[in-house]
Amino acid sequence: MYSPFKMWNWTTICAKKYACLRTTIRFSSVANPKVCIVGSGPAGFYTAQHLIKNEPNLEIDMFEKLPVPFGLVRYGVAPDHADVKNVINTFTSIAKSGRLQFIGNVTIGKDVTLNDLRTAYDVVVLAYGAAQDRWLGIPGENLKNVVSARKFVGWYNGLPEESSLEFDSNVETAVIIGQGNVALDIARILLTPIEILKKTDIAQHALQALKESRIKNVKLVGRRGPLQVAFTIKELREMIKLPYVSNRIHIEDRDYIEACIPKTPRPRRRLTELMLQSADTKQEEVKDSSKQWELIFHRTPLEIVKSENQRSVKNLVVGVNRLKGDNWENLQIEDTGLRERIPCGMIIKSIGYKSLPLSDELPFDHIKGVIRQKEGRVEGMPGVFCSGWVASGPVGVIASTLQSGHDVGKRILEDLRKGNFATSTVKPGRDVILSQLAARGVEPVTFVEWETLDNEERERGKNQEKPREKIIDVKEMIDIAKKTQS
Ligand code: FAD
Question: Contact 41/63 with Cβ under 8 angstroms?
């Protein structure tokens, strides 16, 4: 029978053999420090990549709460952004380098505590992302058909915990609050013809629901102006090029924007020029457009008003803003006192993600929703580091997470080499954690087992001409993973 332990032992042997080939022992106290990484998203993998590349004398384990790796690359990146997901190939090479053990289906903070990890490993890297919602704090936010972008994205990407998200798409207008790339991803998924979506790895339940959806107007509402949008030009171009979809970009202060353009950096200049140009394009030229999206600026959401049946959404009340100040980058929002109602049947809040502490003793900034740290070193916890969104907040793309992961990797090696934290006792590493998991009835999933599941998803996708059909039930995932042959 296949035993994951066989593989773990094998890899440990490889790492030790490799370590023996080295002529210098770099660490003053322990020959093979043990490192664990919590989270298998980009931050976790890029931290591991730096460590593996620059130091052969480390044993590295990666814990992941789901039975599958890759974090938001699998469950955040839009299904029609297949090229972005190619980064999974790099992560797979890291996982299969023989230098890292993926240990999936283990939730740190529940199955194993941070303290357990600190006792077992010399270094703990927290890279568990930002998987909580931010709240607007306005009346009506709890109404049916008001959903967070995080849940909605998780729903169409097949995230197990959001696969049964309930909302009513039997409405014509959806408002998205927020003007970042996630907001544009959602607008695009709502408006893209099904013929295109069905060739992506979108979850089957989402494809079916979007097929039946009546949503044909999507309004993206932001508090600031065109010069301050958080989305990037690639995503705007994709929106503009959507087949059978027209757009309305409401530019209220064109003279001011045109005056500012020369002062902006090139990417912002090109983005703003594209918005102005699209605002000028006669939309009658968009043939057969049955759907539409709008960019609405200078509006602060104030209240969500419920429909007559008291259960859903009727409109979004917004305050009209003006922006004050000399610097386009740093303008203050001022309420004009004017109020408007934007009629809609559904609201998606795309106002950012945040993290939660996975243990009480973890120093945490609850307002920013991030771990308190300096250059990736967690405050007051020698040997504990953090990287990616749990450290920086939900900003930046995968490339920025690469930088964060590599920087943290550098700090870890610096500290280990300087002997900055206690590594004098030999830590037991994964064996003790695996025993604890076994005693607690938790069944970890290895990378080889994930590959069995991966193959099954790809096979199921073939029947439907999709790159894969994601399995969304955790029990089914584990059952398939455990069919792995040794
Ligand atoms: P994550 O990717 O969230 O990884 C964290 C991992 O930790 C997850 O696997 C999670 O399951 C695991 N975890 C959480 N809690 C625990 C626990 N207690 N125990 C064990 N494991 C745990 N960037 C691009 O470059 N291009 C794009 O097209 C793009 N699209 C995006 C779309 C959306 C909707 C979002 C939200 C982001 C997008 N990004 C994109 C940004 C990119 O996804 C992030 O920069 C990156 O994923 C952050 O990496 P991370 O490792 O910090 O977090």
Answer: no
- Strand residues in 262-382 grouped as ranges (E): 291-296, 299-306, 313-324, 332-343, 346-349, 353-354, 364-365, 370-371, 373-374, 377-378
- Identify residue 95 by its one-letter amino acid code: A
Residue nearest to atom 47 of ligand 1 (CA): 72
Closest CA to 225 of 253, 248, 246, 247: 253
- The chain-wide mean pLDDT, for the chain, equals 91
| Ligand 1 pocket, residues with Cβ under 6 angstroms | 38-44, 63-66, 71-72, 76-77, 81, 84, 107-109, 127-129, 131, 153, 182, 185, 358, 388-389, 396-398, 401
DSSP category for residue 383: T
What predicted TM-score, i.e. pTM, was given to this entire model? 0.92
pLDDT tens profile 61-99: 999 999 999 999 999 999 999 999 999 999 999 999 999
DSSP letters along 415-478, please? HHHHT-S---SPP-THHHHHHHHHHTT---B-HHHHHHHHHHHHHHHHTTTSS------HHHHH
Helix (H) or strand (E) holding 67: none
Residue 94: strand, helix, or coil = helix
